[in-house]
What does this fold into?
Amino acid sequence: MAIALAPPACGLFRKSSGGGSASASASSGVPETTVPAGVAPLDAPTWKPLSDPSFIGLPQGCSVGSVVRRAALPAGSVRFSAPANGSDLVLAIDSDGDDTVERAGVFDAEGRPSATFPWTTLSAPPSMVRTPAGFAAVRIAESEGGLRSAELWVPKGRSQRLVAGDHLEIVDASCSGSTCAVLTSFAAESAGPGATLMVGDPMGRSSWKRIDFPGGDDEWVPFSIADVDNTTVFVALSGQTKIGLWRVVDGTASHLATIDAPLGAYDIVLGDEPVVIAPGENIDGECTRDGFTVKLIAPNGKALEIDGHVPPETVVVRRLDGGFIVGWLSPTRCLTRSRQTARAFLLGRDGAPKTSTMAMTEADGFAISTHGSELDLWLAREGELVWAKGTCRIPGPSAR
It folds into this structure.
């Protein structure tokens, strides 16, 4: 059985403020199509109480709730992801190993299968967003003239084509209320540096706004949507050795900060000020020793450090009251790469680590979602899916 979590939207960049300014336009006449029947719904899991959850460790300030559940994982290859701000899990199953998904759907806050989900290729999960009407997905589809298009699938099987371009890639998507943002590579007839942002109402019929970011001298490319706050979108782009941050309001983009990250970046968070989570050491070589520095870099260049144990391979950041939880999956030890461990630490709004890194447990896959101070943690281990609910409260002093 192969198991993996769906990768986060952003990851290390390997290119490298900004040359050029963003331009906006309206995307008129959005074509609408119907999503094919596609995959079958998920079967209902048989959840059972986990008698001994002591193998789960959480960072200081977090605690596991009184009920931890487990269920057998389906046969075949399984991938799953937990979208932010809720207790739902999106899961896909490839039963025969050909990378085609036979079943995919959403487990709701009670662990019951609800809506199906348009995840058709196991190794290429769509971007998943939460809307007032339920989960939506943004995925690539082949378009006219050999181009690729970004399509938004919403509940009840309706799909909107947002934008098309040569070798178009969807990098990130995020929603807040009735405002959704989709970040892609630069949408043009010929692929190149730059990025395109689409902003609109996922359930509305009106035009979406398109904002183009030119590549400029730094050859900016899309990195992530750092936040959507009502109608304001914060967009991060990666340059040759930098992360740039822009605020987009009503189709107008303004540059906020540029943060040097010469070794790449895992993610960017917006607390009291933007902070880039980045490797503190070069990871191009083979991991040969335990102990790895993760840096937290502020716009003024000041960097705090935390021991990440082993270089992270996937990084997931979720917002908490007063800060964030930063988690990842990586080898248990550098010389024990056949086994994986889920790790996490808490980060304050001030950009300082509030705990040391906790090795939570060995697992083949994991997912985290939060809402306020509430935490949902899913672990794939020993042929089972373990679901733990808990709480996380950001401690006061910085971890040293």
About this structure: The chain has two domains: 1-33+76-262, 52-75+267-371+389-400. Residues 7-21, 28-36 have pLDDT under 50 and may be disordered.
